[in-house]
What we know:
Largest sheet: 5 strands, mixed
Strand content: 15-25%
Number of helices: 6
Main location: nucleus
Structural class: alpha/beta
Distance between the termini: 20 Å
Domain Exonuclease: 3-157
Number of strands: 7
Function: Exoribonuclease involved in ribosome biosynthesis. Involved in the processing of ITS1, the internal transcribed spacer localized between the 18S and 5.8S rRNAs.
Order of helices and strands: EEEHHHEHEEEHH
Subcellular location: Nucleus
Shape: globular
Keywords: Exonuclease, Hydrolase, Nuclease, Nucleus, rRNA processing
Amino acid sequence: MNLVIALDCEMVGSGNRSILAKVSVVDEDGRALLNCFVKPTDTVTDYRSSVHRITARDLEDGESFDNVQRKVAELLKGRILVGHSLDFDLGVLNLPHPEHNKRDFAKTRMFMQNGLPRSLKDLAREHLNKNIQEGHHDSLEDARTCMELYKKFDKYW
């Protein structure tokens, strides 16, 4: 069993809150353990398609939230979780994860600038010489990028 996984989610707007639209989880080799759209749990008022290109059609064909939440919870058990702004991702999944098992690039001082989080896009460019989020965000690409960053700096933790 892989001990480290990376997670990223895409969200859509429902009133003044975000709800889960897509979730991606990768293993240490960047292989997708889960990569799926999620049926909305509430009325979508803003698809945010300009950010991640997710449409109503994508979500209609998605998996149920409960099913996805169960799958992610199972993947999280006993593992180190890597990501960028993990509290947002875990929040829309409504899942806890122990702080000592999180590796969050948005909260780790070494990756911040003037005490503020830097974007994953900037971190990828600087530390991996890689351009991501060109035109849109993709949760699978972002999860893989987080894993690459983690593997480069795993000794830091």
